[in-house]
Design brief:
373 residues, alpha/beta, 7-stranded beta/alpha barrel, 2 domains, seven-stranded mixed sheet, two-stranded parallel ribbon, globular
Length: 373
């Protein structure tokens, strides 16, 4: 990557970067070296940077002020340590019209990366221009949520899911992250030969078969030799991109088979759904506890922002800004996911319980105490 052998789209959370740099040795030195390499690669044009939420929250569940803060703080960290981001990755792909609107108002040049489920499409990749109510247009890359699901999970599914295309050879799909030719065959079946590089193929570049031993990364070169075409987000041609109205966008996530009335089923599930009704009481209680925290935090944050003169002024005030940054880990999305995700994905409720105890609750309590009225 440092020498431009393999181009990438790279996305890191701002909170992750800052905590790396606060870590003891040898993690701190490794973090500095990694960030220096990324900055070098960015300056040479070998990579493009993606922004996201500062602490990986589910943005549609937050107030507009909180969405703004998560975006602003993430971009600020990326600019300081790596470079100017080109695109924006919604944590867990969870998006709605509100989150899109705040992103566009905050950073109109950022290209939004959106799952095809938000367009009520399946097995779709492409580019669109989203027309907002003021008439201005937001660029968006629409990503194939089925491809993402197969890349991450195919080998763990005991059988071919009902939502997968009949034309897809399932035995090949289950092995594609270990074999470049099989990977290319799946790409062709799902979305043709042209692809945009974001998130380094969802972290599957570390699998055997897609790794170039010398380059230590995703073997894009080998896939290009097979006929695949790759572009960085800035290289997309937008003149022929379909124009859609923002009102056409639906709440969606990377979950390819989420019901229309339960689009955020792993983070804010519909309590009238059969799936929720069948959940055991302990897991329900954990999820409800997390949802209560989100609601309380939204209210508290609105009070803090209003007292400081608005969200922009809040982030200009160094004292208030540090209080906000210290509290945002309370919103991390992993808490409900480990209680609600499919068993095949190997969720770990114990991880969420520890994260709740060691990160979420302390962050919340510190924010509450430091902003008593």
């Amino acid at each position: 990557m440092k020498d431009g052998i393999i181009r990438r789209g790279v996305q890191l959370q701002g909170w992750t970067i800052e905590n790396w740099l606060k870590s003891p040795e040898p993690i701190k030195s490794l973090a500095k070296e990694t960030l220096d390499n990324l900055k070098h690669a960015y300056q040479k044009g070998y990579i493009e940077i993606g922004a996201s939420g500062y602490t990986h929250p589910i943005l549609p569940l937050l107030t507009e002020d909180l969405v703004y803060a998560q975006i602003e703080l993430d971009i600020e960290v990326l600019k300081e340590y790596i470079g100017e981001p080109t695109w924006f990755w919604f944590p867990e792909g969870v998006v709605d019209q509100k989150a899109l609107k705040v992103l566009f108002e905050k950073s109109p040049k950022l290209i939004a990366v959106i799952p095809d489920t938000a367009l009520e499409r399946k097995n779709f990749s492409g580019f669109v221009r989203i027309k907002h109510k003021n008439g201005k247009e937001q660029k968006a890359i629409i990503c194939n949520s089925l491809l993402k699901d197969i890349m991450l999970n195919a080998e763990y599914y005991p059988q071919k899911p009902s939502y997968v295309l009949k034309s897809l050879n399932w035995s090949i799909a289950q092995k594609m992250v270990y074999n470049g030719e099989k990977f290319f065959e799946v790409l062709q079946t799902l979305g043709g030969n042209s692809h945009v590089l974001v998130r380094d193929w969802e972290n599957k570049g570390s699998k055997d078969g897609l790794v170039s031993i010398n380059a230590k990364g995703l073997d894009i070169k080998g896939l290009v030799e097979l006929g695949a075409e790759f572009k960085l987000p800035s290289e997309v041609g937008w003149s022929k991109a379909r124009l859609i109205n923002i009102n056409e966008m639906k709440p969606g996530s990377w979950e390819v088979d989420a019901p229309e009335d339960d689009p955020f089923l792993y983070w804010w599930p519909n309590e009238r759904s059969e799936r929720w009704q069948n959940l055991d009481s302990e897991r329900k209680n954990w999820v409800l506890k997390w949802e209560s925290l989100i609601k309380d935090y939204n209210k508290k944050f609105s009070m803090v922002a209003e007292k400081a003169g608005g969200i922009e002024k809040s982030l200009e005030n160094k004292i208030v800004k540090e209080k906000i940054k210290g509290s945002l880990p309370a919103l991390m999305s992993c808490i409900p996911w480990h209680f609600l995700a499919k068993p095949e994905w190997k969720p770990d409720p114990g991880f969420s319980e520890l994260a709740w105890k060691n990160i979420v609750v302390p962050a919340k309590e510190q924010f509450w105490q430091s902003n008593k009225r």
